[in-house]
Design goal:
By secondary structure, the chain is an alpha+beta fold. It has helices spanning 3-12, 27-35, 57-63, 104-118, 131-137, 186-189, and strands spanning 49-54, 87-94, 122-126, 144-153, 159-163, 172-173, 179-183. It is globular and about 45 Å long.
Length: 192
Amino acid sequence: MEFNELKELLIKNRSYRRFDQSKEISYETLKDIVSLSTLCASGRNLQPLKYRIVNNPKECAIVFPLLAWAGYLKDWAGPEYGERPTAYLIQCLDLSLTDNPMCDEGLQLEALTLGATASGLGTCIIKSFNQIKLKEILDIPESLNPTYIVALGYPAEQAVLEPIKDGDIKYWRDPNGIHHVPKRGLEEILVK
């Protein structure tokens, strides 16, 4: 892969919050995406993260209300029916191996979202969810601690990057429903 191809993939790899709920994602596709996590570097090479795939409509309907969506969009409760994710990957820390995943969570989340993007899917990494109910409803073993949820589907919205204006980092939607994501420029993040 060329540098510019990677850059384009990263630009496409946005947090999407509205999906085409009529298009399902196969278990095999989700397994292929999760397989990318096995190729990632791992602190101490411990590899303590595991994944629960959710892709049947009944389980998706159970998971959805346990999630918090788009904290900066105060007047939006999340995607309406018809725009909800059609799959979830639940990242779990195996507490029988460690209670400190070090950097593994982020490394694997980036691999998963890039793989999904390369497959034509959109994703949204969610940290705010009802962990206790999720474990109970999906019968996740006590030794596994859900840390993040990746919502997946075929994007039904457009997300664009733009420079930060007046120091405001909050994402927002314009009247046409386009999702705007302010980003710091290279000069702002380079330490001189």
